[in-house]
Amino acid sequence: MTQTTSARSGLTRRGFLKSTGATAGLAAIAGLAGCAPAKEGGAESDLAETGVVEEQVFRGVCRPNCFGFCHMNVHVRDGHVVKTSRRDYVSDPHYSRICQRGLSHVHRINDPERLKYPLRRVEGTERGAGEWERISWDEAISEVAAKIKEYQGQYGPQALATMSISGNYGQLTNAMYNRLFSFLDACSISADSDMASYYGGWRFNGGINECNEISDVLNSKTIMVYGANITDAQVHHWHFIKEAQQNGTKLIVVDPIYTQLASKADIWVPIRPGADTALFMGIMNIVVERGAVDVAFMTKSTVGPFLVRSDTGKYLRLSDIDPSSAKADEALAEEAGEEAPADPCMVLENGELVSCDDATAPDLDAEYNFDGVTCRTAYALLRDEVAKFPVSRVAEMTQLTEETIEELADYCIAGSVSHLLGYGNTAYGNGVQVCISGMTMAALTGNMCKPGSTFGNSYPVYTGTNYAFSSPQPKNTPGVGILSLPEVMKTGQRIGEDFPIKMLFIWSANPYNTMCHTNALINDVWPNLDYVVTVDTQMTDTACYSDLVLPCGQHFEQVDICTDGPTWNLHYNEKCAEPPYEAKRDSDIARLLAQELGYGEYFQMTDEEAIKEILETEDGVARGLTIDALKEQGDLRYDVADPHVSWPDGTGFATPTGRLEFYQEDPQVRSPREKVPSPERYEAERLPHWFPPFEAWSENDIMKKYPLQLMSERPRYRVHSQYYNVAMLREIDPEPIVKINPQDAKARGIEDGSYVDCYNDRGHAVAKAVYSEAMRPGVMVYPKGWQRSQHKAGGWSELLTNEFDEYGVNSNFMDVVCEVRPWNEGGDE
Ligand SMILES: Nc1nc2c(c(=O)[nH]1)N[C@H]1C(S)=C(S)[C@@H](COP(=O)(O)OP(=O)(O)OC[C@H]3O[C@@H](n4cnc5c(=O)[nH]c(N)nc54)[C@H](O)[C@@H]3O)O[C@H]1N2
Ligand SMILES: Nc1nc2c(c(=O)[nH]1)N[C@H]1C(S)=C(S)[C@@H](COP(=O)(O)OP(=O)(O)OC[C@H]3O[C@@H](n4cnc5c(=O)[nH]c(N)nc54)[C@H](O)[C@@H]3O)O[C@H]1N2
Ligand code: SF4
Ligand SMILES: [Mo]
């Protein structure tokens, strides 16, 4: 594997440094990358003075939040990254990939605008005015530590809030900060993104993002994709789908937009936005009407046969039938010092009440009168709920034809379907139910828990690391979600209790750009913060509006491991070079702060030692997941079953009943906030239920004022706001655009290629209009992630709502309405 060559670059060391310096064009670096000799890792080059530049190749793991975790060769000459190229996964070569962003890292790493020194906002200037003074690390660290002590001393631990989202999915980077902030018992601000599907899945099956591995689509007869833009947003998944299609698998894409993926589909289903739950309910109704329910699966793996009491909504349990025996069991357990046995749910078998543990063939669809209380099976309740969705009504709601809906039901009933759920259709006020009703539909047809049959998003996360490393202290300070933060900052209260936050420490996140309702952050959050620190490689929107900016290393400049990914693998990232100028590794920034704050003794370990402590749990080591093995191989598969199939026995779900819970006796919110669910809502949440979107639904009054829906798209040329300043990508994708159906544009006097102002009551964004027949009339789509400074005015996140549903507490990026008008630069807005 090791290749060692050297080549004459024609540049002396001094010449090279000059050409890569702050003022040099990027072409110089790219040019050098063209003559790429290679040596694997290791020895420093000492040949540069003679004009011979030796190249070293390190293993990098690209890890912005694109779900990719592509392995790459990081080519380094004289301590400078000159190129990145694809590197194979050792244990899973079919995941070896790279994309245009991965190939462009050299531009990011050597960006002349990369942050070089700690910068403090010049006293007396406004945040965002762009006036900075360079300060030393000593000054920066002591200032941050002093502020933390001052605010926490005066207001309590929550006075320090921290926020990290998805800039770097490295374990060490995040664990070191989290460890420090655990000692400080700081308040952590969560992003509330992607939570409808995360929470919906957790509620239904107890897993987090749990479904079959993406390579398992090769075992399916049909792949049905709902609200995922796989060719652009999950690029490493696409080739599996294409391969399956080439083997005869049908690809059905349910998306209101004619996306790249839709263009590759055998059937494109242009559903009305926000209507997926109605579609799933309608399909379930057809399945029931046709008598095509998979009774065996529903009986064995779901709560279907459990009797539900009509008086309480709870399952009928053994303790209801025989309180004395249940009490006796409890007492016996207590005497023996054991946990009380579960109180089994009751089912009907041959007309008799039996504990679910003892039944062999319980009735799925039954009713029983217990002590004057009607009890019906959970399945019977579901059947009644879906009966409200006859195909004619669903056709109206979804704006699909009845034939299309029947045809989709045919595919579901035929079985062997990979149902792939994205994050687009769940980014609505009604998103949780999209996930829950979809999973119920898959269960009803037995399309789960077998090779080729699944429902969900394949994004596995290894959970076997040492959690205590990043949380050495019990957490007493509650967290706050970004959607509630404006309210918390405005009132100084969280759920009725005083909760003053004074300082925000941000790393790996650009909330001023990526989080909803920027003007709520601008007006309610930022002015109420006395001190904001951002650690980044770039002067992002968030960094711009901070009081102190700390420059950090880029992904490849720090050793790290990753435990997420498109597959069941752990990944090792070697350090390829030192961070340039005065930038420091995140782990070192955490160490310096810890030292200054009196926690230095807990941060004495090296990065390698810290990684070992994080990775090598007893269970991990027993499975061979050691740092040495990971370093040696670069990637390690932690699930030997390949492809991974979730719950292949159809049992063992981590729900309270151990079964798939399409009926919940006590639905719990994901995260308690000031919005408390009403009793009606609580009742409705028990079963799959149709709720309309918050805004983007024509029956909603707001659409009279703002008749267009505004959706975002994951751009190929950025991951969120990352790669925004890469010259090579900006050549292809130079400025913010918004795609609009020509019909909508012409009705407003908007010409193709002209600038337009998209606006609603919350804010606005100016972008170039691009006519596109791929847009559904009434819907506009913008590629997300431009920094505010790259817009002519405004920014996309200004238009987003921070309304949330009390169960999922999720950001509704797609459930947004607006109007659009031509924009005259310098004219009236
Ligand atoms: N290049 C790139 N890749 C990325 C990212 C990035 O920023 N850039 N971001 C990453 C992250 S963090 C995430 S969460 C994922 C998201 O990955 P995806 O879920 O695949 O992407 P989205 O763009 O959120 O939405 C997918 C699709 O949902 C459709 N859609 C919108 N409303 C509806 C609806 O009501 N019903 C249906 N059926 N479809 C609807 C949209 O038209 C869109 O095509 O992508 C990841 N990948
Ligand atoms: N309109 C709209 N907005 C959305 C979405 C949408 O669909 N539509 N999707 C949302 C979703 S699903 C997500 S996940 C969020 C993502 O939101 P963010 O995580 O805020 O998005 P990024 O732009 O990736 O920001 C990460 C920042 O981390 C920095 N960074 C990278 N590497 C490192 C490092 O090693 N150390 C440190 N300290 N910093 C580093 C990057 O330079 C970047 O500025 O965006 C959300 N925003
Ligand atoms: S940006 Fe994502 S898809 Fe592209 S190389 Fe990096 S990890 Fe892979
Ligand atoms: Mo995301």
From TrEMBL:
Matches recorded under InterPro entries: Asp_de-COase-like_dom_sf (IPR009010), MoPterin_dinucl-bd_dom (IPR006657), Mopterin_OxRdtase (IPR006656), Mopterin_OxRdtase_4Fe-4S_dom (IPR006963), Prok_Mopterin_Oxidored (IPR050612), TAT_signal (IPR006311)
Pfam families in UniProt: Molybdop_Fe4S4, Molybdopterin, Molydop_binding
Keyword match Signal: yes
Superkingdom, taxonomy of origin: Bacteria
Stretches assigned to coiled coil: none
Domain 4Fe-4S Mo/W bis-MGD-type: 55-113
Keywords assigned by UniProt, alphabetized: Iron, Iron-sulfur, Metal-binding, Oxidoreductase, Signal
Family designation: Belongs to the prokaryotic molybdopterin-containing oxidoreductase family.
Protein name stated in the entry: Molybdopterin-dependent oxidoreductase
Classification lineage: Bacteria, Bacillati, Actinomycetota, Coriobacteriia, Eggerthellales
